[in-house]
Amino acid sequence: MTVIVTESLSKRYPRVTALDRLSVDIAPGVTGLVGANGAGKSTLIKILLGLAPATEGTAHVLGLDVTKDGSTIRERVGYMPEHDCLPPDVSATEFVVHMARMSGLPPTAARERTADTLRHVGLYEERYRPIGGYSTGMKQRVKLAQALVHDPQLVFLDEPTNGLDPVGRDEMLGLIRRVHTDFGISVLVTSHLLGELERTCDHVVVIDGGKLLRSSATDEFTQVTTSLAVEVTDTDTHPDGTEALRAALVSAGAAVSTDAAGAASVVSSGHLLYVEAPGEETYDLVRDTVAGLGLGLIRMEQRRHRIAEVFSTADAAAGTPATVPATAGAPHATQDGGAHDAA
Ligand SMILES: Nc1ncnc2c1ncn2[C@@H]1O[C@H](COP(=O)(O)OP(=O)(O)OP(=O)(O)O)[C@@H](O)[C@H]1O
User: Fold this and answer.
1) Are 288 and 163 in a shared domain?
2) What pairs with residue 205 in β-bridges?
3) Pair (260, 214) in one structural domain
4) 44 C-alpha vs ligand 1 centroid, how far in Å?
5) Which domain holds residue 253?
6) Does residue 35 sit in the same domain as residue 114?
7) pLDDT digit string, tens, across residues 5-33
8) Mutate which of 43, 208, 335 for ligand 1 pocket (most atoms within 8 A of beta carbon)
9) Among 99, 122, 223, 281, which residue's beta carbon has the most beta carbons within 10 A?
């Protein structure tokens, strides 16, 4: 039993191959679709919904052919688009009822399902306020609710954690998991962060430059080296909190670093520090160092390496036939800056 099958699916635009002979076979459950920006995730979703034609290859969703059965697919599949597309002047209730009616639910059922769905996504209290005053997290929940309101068998969630802070991300990931456990709805969720999908998904599909890099059960990913992303506040004593923490960790890090090459294991990127975390003691070290400096800890979360690094390591270890293109994980030279997103 599969919910999505594609065979040698390609989508070529005049200057870009967005999908390149992609063959995947996705079972019921929660599946993550991971790829850098421009990897082809949104393109795949549009083809699977029957909204954009493929250049070649075939795709079936819930056993239905995307070229012939697009409208039936859209009745049975919910879709949460990536970008903010909500009308600011109406309330969550009005909007979600409207979407329920658009999917064919009669008025009473639409109202009941809307109330249930908004309660499920945690928006019950605010449901009569205009969406324009909502936080990003609340807007993402409205988008999730409208994807679920017609009780689909499958939902496509395009970057649902985009723009959320760490707490908001965790809450959204928990909600997504419950969409499957509470309602039995299968989920295809995209992200450019492998780490967050690993926690949520049964299965992860990784694409890069429109090609399949890897498709496997989540627990097969867990052996991969991890690093910690740490973000701290600045204080009067430490006007550059990130640098203060970096320096303190580097001096303490000599003791904890197990880096085989003996290289410094703390690198800084903007306001984020990436700390190699071979074991749990690194978490304690970071926490204690942050506290010792009197900084505020904004986030400390497990991070994966860039997808290309993860998969070149994982593939070598697992001996899978997936190949890693030389450009894997690199920003797409051909990316058009997102102008297509409005389409
Ligand atoms: N309508 C279009 N016309 C031309 N090129 C397009 C169009 N839609 C997408 N592309 C290109 O196809 C490639 C894949 O885009 P896609 O939106 O599927 O990527 P993505 O993985 O969803 O990334 P993002 O999260 O940034 O949207 C990109 O190089 C993009 O510029």
Assistant:
1) no
2) 33, 215
3) no
4) 10
5) 226-304
6) yes
7) 999 999 999 999 999 999 999 999 999 99
8) 43
9) 99
